[in-house]
Amino acid sequence: MQTVDHISFAGKKALIRVDFNVPLDKKTFEITDDARIRATIPTLKKILADGGSCILMSHLGRPLKKLKEDGTVDYEKHTLKHTVKRTSELLGVQVKFAGDCIGAEAAQMTVNLKSGEVLLLENLRFYKEEEKGDISFAQKLAVYGDVYVNDAFGTAHRAHASTAIIAQFFPKAKCFGYVMAREIENAEKVMKNAARPFTAITGGAKVSDKLLILENLLERVDNLIIGGGMAYTFLKAMGYEIGSSLCEDDRLDLCIQLMKKAEAKGVRLLLPQDSVVADAFSNEANHKVCDNKMIEKGWMGLDIGPEAIAANDEVIKNSKTILWNGPMGVFEMSHYEAGTKAAAIAVAEATEKGAFSLIGGGDSAAAVAKFGFEKKVSYVSTGGGALLEYFEGKELPGIKAINQE
Ligand code: AMP
After folding, report:
1. For the whole model, what pTM was predicted?
2. Which of the residues are catalytic?
């Protein structure tokens, strides 16, 4: 894998796709979580330390999809100018800003850029060509730099102009930044080189969102734990009464096929034997533990129950590789958090015993953070949709564009 470590940037202009898509306060436009900017600082510091300069490209929200009521672009909500101050502080270098990502001003600023300097270009998504993957837009950006660096894993599953298309203009001078490299390395450790036993824990709301992942995982894992709202569609497919639990009736056949596939592959599939059920989707609702064979009418499963926790624990603690995607219940509400919390504890214990654990894609990362286990697992991915597509077995355009000759 070609990374910034394999290139000397002395006297070179690095054109870097970063992910500065940070949350902003609605009124003051202050950054409320700078984790994404912070993550890319080591990549930028390496380039500057070599004697290179950095031209940063990013998106922030979706300005052309989220227009104001009068149909115009909401500039204040989408300008990357709000990230200049924080980036400068973190980097210890005053970052320059080009108010348009293409055009004469940006071109001139890139030409004038000296070693040790950093220039941030305005939001790429002010142009529809970015998300369309327009080649001439990509080419306009490409002329700014000598080397193309992709460090935006969050958009690696998109074939946009700045994330994939642009790479063809740098056939001998393209690489991954440290954020991308670490994400790829950890995802590969799980999907390509997993030590056994390999257990995947999947949960969250819907089966339909996770079907491709489940199918792909069945080819690789020894154990597949299914919890959260998606478990009830499986339980219904098995002929159980699930009350008013979440269910996707159009996926019952698919659940049966997945269960058959697991059996044929010798994968141990763990569905919860019991649940914490409630008479409404609320933390204030009446709730009790109930066997999953018979959930009464008017009650819904909002967490896995104590028997399910015990069964999962045993499997998780004996695993050497663990992939966790999706909470075991409605962990945002205190009465239904036990199943997710127990899974976090079991994953932490297994990790302490030497297992490799990767958490990511959606709410499982939020759950692990909520219970304070971020440092007790091997890796929490920032990838979201990109990681999910990787788990589905897809080749991500942002990765392919750097890897191909
Ligand atoms: P996902 O984004 O698919 O990982 O889904 C995460 C969401 O699923 C969280 O907000 C959970 O509250 C929700 N969830 C988990 N278990 C259940 C359940 N049994 N019933 C309803 N929602 C659930």
Report:
1. 0.89
2. 36, 206, 362, 385
